[in-house]
Amino acid sequence: MSRRPVYSHAQMKRLVAPETVAVIGLSRNEKSFGARAAANLAGFAGRTYGVNPGGGTVHGVECFPSIGAIPVSVDSAVLAVPADAVADVVEQCAIAGVGGCVIFASGFAETGREDRIALQERIVAIGRAANMRIVGPNCFGLINNVSRAGLSFSGRYAASPGMAGPVGLVSQSGGLAQALAQVTERGGSYSHFLAAGNSADVDVCDYISYLAGDETCRVIACIAEGLADGERLLEAGEAAMAGCKPIIMYKIATGSAGAKAAMSHTGTLAGSNAAYDAAYARAGIVKADNIEDVYPIAAFFAKAGCPKAGGVAAVAASGGACVITLDKSEAAGVAMPLPGAATKKILEAYIPDYGAPTNPCDITAGVAADGAAYAACVEALLNDPAYSALVVMAPSISEAMTPRNVAMFSPLAAKAGKPVCLSWMSEWRDGPGALEAEADPNIALFKSTEQCFGTLRAWHDWAADPPPMRPRGGREGRARTLLDAAGAKLTEREGKAILAAYGVPVATDHVVASAEAAVAAAKAIGYPVVLKVESPDIAHKTEAGVVRLDLTGVDAVRTAYNDVIDAADRLDPKPQIKGVLVQPMIASGVELVVGAQNDPTFGPMVIVGLGGIMVELIRDSAAELAPVTREQAAAMLRRLKGYPLLTGFRGSAPVNIAAIEAIIVAVSELAADHAADIAEIDVNPIICGPGRAIAVDALIVRK
Fold this sequence. Notes:
Blueprint: H1 9-16, E1 20-24, H2 33-40, E2 47-51, E3 56-58, E4 61-64, E5 76-79, H3 83-96, E6 100-103, H4 114-129, E7 133-135, E8 141-144, E9 149-152, E10 164-171, H5 174-181, E11 190-195, H6 204-212, E12 219-224, H7 230-242, E13 247-251, H8 265-270, H9 274-283, E14 285-287, H10 291-304, E15 311-316, H11 319-332, H12 341-350, E16 361-362, H13 364-369, H14 371-383, E17 387-394, H15 402-416, E18 420-424, H16 434-439, E19 443-446, H17 449-463, H18 476-485, H19 492-501, E20 510-512, H20 515-525, E21 529-533, H21 541-544, E22 547-551, H22 554-569, E23 580-584, E24 590-599, E25 603-610, H23 615-618, E26 621-625, H24 630-639, H25 644-647, H26 657-673, E27 678-688, E28 693-695, E29 698-702
Parallel strand pairs: 1-2, 1-5, 2-4, 5-6, 6-7, 10-11, 10-12, 12-13, 13-14, 15-16, 15-17, 17-18, 18-19
Antiparallel strand pairs: 3-4, 8-9, 8-11, 20-23, 21-22, 21-23, 24-25, 24-27, 25-26, 27-28, 27-29
């Protein structure tokens, strides 16, 4: 099927926020999926109807013999029918003007059978022709917890607490979405539970787009398995950013087993998850590293608002806990500045000299037991303009003190307009105070200090302005001519010519076909020189032994020419040889690699890393979706662990960083402009010095 943009909030509203629901296939068997759906609709704010051939009333729901016989317009239909009956029922729903169908049945495209794939495609075609959304098949269903529309066969929802919270839950997998939804068992809450199943029509991107426009949802928590079209995730992310709504996403299937082999070094650097990380940055998505982190991060974002400062304060009645906060804050990159003079004066008035009126603040057990003194210290830290949040370390839990303290934290946090993060260190995981903290609108509960500070770092990062989407480069004309003139495989010389058309500085070269011609070219260029075999079949010339460096005389050039030709002749399979390149030997400097790869989900992406022969050993790289701006290119360089090498390390001269940024931008534009033709680009090495950055080798791989 042809690509489509994400559905808008309006296009999804009848499905996700229905006023009328029909359960088709409502059986008298209490264990059937239809009966479960009816039970989950018992508290629904709208009207529920059933479809049963016998009519009458089933499980308290008025039934009709067909969807067309229901006397009102149905917004959402739950299909609790066998797989072979689904297509006919969907067609009946389309004729009746239903807004959306939720299909529980399995046995469609997930089987891999061509006939079942075709059946799924037929169902989607019927729905789209009627402007009717399709959820599933092979789907757990969806829940609008605001209106208590439980369009799901969940066995627990009917008995779950009715309070709707500000976090929307989105997942392809119903089981994983259910894992998040069970947060209600420990005081949490959610606004929506949206599972996509096979994602034949509606997928996680559509759900994100819907929630972006939903007033009851403030944060979107998403579990993604895989996306067929990454551009749709970017569209959904833009919709969420427009509504100032954070997306917390955990991507499963992140192992390297599924990564395809790449010809270029940059393809190896990119890895299987670099494109997702780049897309998260482009779409303002907060990445969760574990499923256990998704809801705590989302709940914090929903409670916290935007940070009012760049620093964080921490308080504890344990010196050891204070040391842990320093360890974890440093590891996460969260600033913990010292308290201001006014704050410190208040702290010193209450904390004895064996405590620490600093940050982290060791208030001592005595102050912690004194409610008024503890409250005064907490209030002082919350009111300090240097802090955006207060972390309260809870190494031990007390039936007498912990619930009281939670009740004390909440109004102080609300008054300051800053969140209190309760870092629950005790192994009494659900001890007294945990339920109250989870349910409190001003307190975020974390079950590990690492999770707490990781979330604070993500919060501060998210508050920064996200990078804008950018149009294509527009320098494709000359490069297109060169690309069309090249063969199925490009040589180094052809690749460098295309890069030069985009403004990338490249080492000049002469192509020769004899040792004497190589000597003449070397004299014209000036010693020292480099000789390389020019062949479209040799991707990595150094490894193939067809490169000779730093040649300084006639005899050396003659010998090198014969050596590289002999080395090429010994390769198996024997490569096509188009001559030997003679290039100037570029003075040493910092070596970088800049390249691009066409990701199957997100399209072209640009990668920069430390280059030369160490590229795959060090694997120090940064990636972004292409094209990038000059500012994004600069940020990519700063993310490299080897960035100090560019700015002047241990007395070395700083390199021309502006020239490197320009190369990154140019390569990104080349990759974006020619995404239909170019699979990989590898510019390696780029030798960088104080005055220039120049590409001395290049590989461009066609699709």
